[in-house]
């Protein structure tokens, strides 16, 4: 029994070790994942590649999406559709009401803090419905990075976001029950605690730097 618990704890720690490594250098992937110059110079292909790569290389967003596996959502396909819809809605809204430069550190801090909120969702202190506004906020910041682009690369960027986020959401929700079964209740608690710690740490970094 004790050996079984140790295995689950090690498996749980191993899953989050990857997340910690991804979050080691947050500033390195603060904007576009490729050296593209100004957003107004993006080609259609660059917009598509940026849309696919940006959410996967941004550590706070990637961790947020991967940790959805620990929530154990019911009706995962419906959740995927809803999360993608609010995420793309947030990205579209960023084109209508861009984020002022003065508020950017606070927005980044709030996005990082969403990891802590997700940890509370995993612990069932908050409803899963909190994922919707948090995902919309992530989408808003992802959309803010391409303000000024021409309509064609802008559309291809949104298409890239749809592909990347849709595929990742389908994967994490599809393996969710297996992951939860593997790590057990103690593993969920441990992972939620680590997630909260990462979120608070990232928020402090965003405000300081």
UniProtKB/TrEMBL annotation:
Classification via InterPro entries: HupE_UreJ (IPR007038)
Pfam families hit by this protein: HupE_UreJ
Superkingdom classification of source: Bacteria
Spans through the membrane: 54-73, 80-99, 105-123, 130-149, 155-177, 189-208
Keyword Transmembrane: yes
Protein name, per record: Hydrogenase accessory protein
Keywords assigned: Membrane, Transmembrane, Transmembrane helix
